[in-house]
Structure formats: C-alpha cells, structure tokens
Amino acid sequence: MASGGGSGLASNQNSQEAASNSAQCAAVASLSNMPVSAPAPSASPPVLGLHREPMYNWQATKSSLKERFAFLFNNELLSDVRFIVGKGRQAQRIPAHKFVLAAGSAVFDAMFNGGMATTSTEIELPDVEPAAFLSLLRFLYSDEVHIGPETVMTTLYTAKKYAVPALESHCVEFLTKHLRADNAFMLLTQARLFDEPQLASLCLDTIDKSTADAINAEGFTDIDLDTLCAVLERDTLSIRENRLFEAVVRWAEAECYRQQLPPTSENKQKVLGKALPLIRFPLMTVEEFAAVNPKPRVDYIDRPRCCLRGEECSINRFQQVESRWGYSGTSDRIRFNVNRRISIVGFGLYGSIHGPTDYQVNIQIMESDKRITLGQNDTGFSCDGTANTFRVMFKEPVEILPNVSYTACATLKGPDSHYGTKGMKKVTQESSTGTKTTFLFFSSPGNNNGTSVEDGQIPEIIYYI
C-alpha cells in the first residue's frame, strides 16, 4: 500500500499538517459559531456515497461530458485507484480514476505518471480529511464547489497540497465573505500558514478597522508569535497603545500556559521575545506607562500609529458667538459622552478679538470618573481675528467609548478671545453614510475658567467614525 505524500509538490505541504490541525479546528468554530464535534467512529474504512445506478448503458442517460464525469465521482465503476483517507477509525476508502485526477492536478500526475510513479492501486492519505478530499475530487470531476464553515480550512489545505489553485481561490473567496473582526486573527493565522497573501491582507485590513473588537475575540490569544509580531509592526491599528499592551499581556499569559510556565513577569517577557520591542510605550501617557510593571529594558518605536479610517466629522455645541473671554492659566473644561465609539482627533477653539494672534495651548481628554488622561498635546495655533474656530489637534487619535463620561480640557495662553453662547446640551451629527453620533454635554465641576454647557470655550470637537 502506497502513501500519498511521495511527490515533491505534495511533500512540501506535509510539514504544515501539525501546525495547522488545532488552528483549523478553532477556525471552524469561529466561522460557524458552532461547537466542533468529531465524526462518528467507523469500524473500518468505508466507501461512502457511491452511485447505485444500473451499470449497463449508463452513458446513454448522461447528455454531456460533465454529467458523465460527475457520474464517475466517488464511483467504483471504471476506477483504477483507491485512497484510504484519514486516520484510524475515521478513515474512508474512496475510489477514483487516475486519468481524471492527473488531468486536474500536477501532484496526481506526478504520483501516477512521473519518474517515481506509484504502482499501487491503494494509496494512504493519513493527513487529509475525508470530507475535504471528497470536495477536492468533486471539483476535479465536475467543477462543483462544495465547501462550508466545517470543511473550508481542510479543503484549502487539501487544494494546496495537491496543487489545485482554482479550488484554493474558491476557499479563499468563501473565507473572505465570512471574514469578521471576531475571526480575523484566526483566519490571519491560517492565511499565513497556507501562504495566502490576499486573504492575509484582508484580515489585516479588518484588524486595522476594528482593532478593539479583534483583540477582544477569543481567537486572539491562540495566534502564534510571528502573527502577533506581524500585527504589532503595523502603523495602522485603531487602538490606544495601552489597550494594545493589555491584549499582548493576555496573549503572553496564554502562551505561558501553552508552554507550561508560571505566568510571572519574567516568563511573560520571555515568551513575548521579539514582540515586546514592538509595543510603542512612548505613545502611552505618563499615567498609562506608570501601570506597566516591571519596566522593560529595551528600545521602543515612537512612531505614531496612523489609525484614522472612515470619515472626519465635527460638532459645534454653541449657536452664537460673543466677545471677550479671558485667560489666567486655568483650564476651560466641559464634560461629555457619546452614543457610539469614535476617535477624537482635536478641538476647534475660539481665537483673539484683537486681530491676528498666536496662542499657546495644552489640550487634554480625560476619563472623568477615573481621572485618567487619555490624550494630550502641548501646541499652539494662529488665529486671524475672526469669530471662526481654529483647529488644535492631538498627536494621535483618542478612542472614545459609548456611554462613558469624558472631560475635554483646553488651557490657553494669549489675549482675550471670542466665546460661545446659547449652548446645546445635546448635539447629533449625521455622517454622509447616515451614521448618527450624539454628544451629551455637562458642566465640569470645580474651577473651569467659567466654561459650561451654556457659555465658554471648546466649541468644537473633531472626530472620526
């Protein structure tokens, strides 16, 4: 009895089997949202799904070449080779026809007709799932594609192993249609394992757009170190660095468990290895970095992650502009919350009533209840003396979660400015795609330089959805 891993093309894929089995099972659960269950045991390799039509003159009932070949699929009639597919009690005995297989696959052609062609009429394929092999044969016999959440990963593996790129493309298309933030990491691992750059790129784009949802998905902690590094190297993740670091720590704890190591700080740094320097600690605020213990002793990237995607929007909370708002070193503050996740990139501030002037300004966003600074920038802006607002931007976007209380702060140094009146407590902005974002404003307690819901500074919030 021969083994099906003898050809050069096939043997190059065999090393993938051990690495892919557990990831494939998890991917099945991720795609189907159903628990993965083992097939019922069988006493010996059965021959399943064989045609039972009368053998005599069967050709007369098939009007096309496609129908005749489809009739021969999984059929003992005229077969000249049989495959024992799978392992142990799960194995199945599947008949086939060398000519059909060789015509559709260079690997089968080498197996049957090459210089080291097998002479055996029964070939073992222990590394292939029976359902996936039947999907491959069905495609070779009839061009029909039968894949689903339970079989797509094993079918992709089988199509790669036997060099059937058309079926590979169908598998990748299926995965692309079912790609979501909660399975993007799992599919990214598979795409890298099977060398599918198009699928990998789509997975990375999904992770960029919905980073928080992707890293909170169950499959994130199951990815391999190389996949983790590939994501951490990106400049386009839409998440604050401290939240990304928290997710990386969860991954390290899971990896310690896989390696049977106690989840100490030293062991977590050890399993992270080359991934640790990819965390951009300089992008954290002082308060966020203070929570990192112990402090790692390596050099870190300080390049911002350019994570802005979607549409830039802005809201103005005042209906009228008046003159003369003074500054003495006290911050203007206003509290707010929103109904959906957004990324705030800056404020629009009022400028001087005395003509063109330069201001120095420190802007901040704080989580009100925890008194944590989420983003800040010491910068400046030039105004032209009009009652317009002037953009002052953060160094990187600040993620704002729904129904959480935040405080916007601006500390200006400069002459008296315009200010807003007839403030609105509730402001709703609709984007060009119809997405509605609602801000609710509240006066900030304490010394806030007089700014309130009704009057003051910080008239405009600039954000991305």
UniProtKB/TrEMBL annotation:
Alphabetized Pfam families for the sequence: BACK, BTB, PHR
Signal peptide: none
Keyword Cytoplasm included in the entry's annotation: yes
Parts forming coiled coils: none
Protein's cellular compartments: Cytoplasm
Domain BTB: 79-149
Broad class of the protein's primary localization: cytoplasm
Keyword terms, alphabetized: Cytoplasm
InterPro entries per record: BACK, BTB/POZ_dom, PHR, PHR_sf, SKP1/BTB/POZ_sf
Domain of life: Eukaryota
Cellular component aspect of the GO annotation: cytosol; P-body
GO BP term, pick one: neurogenesis
Record protein name field: BTB (POZ) domain containing 1
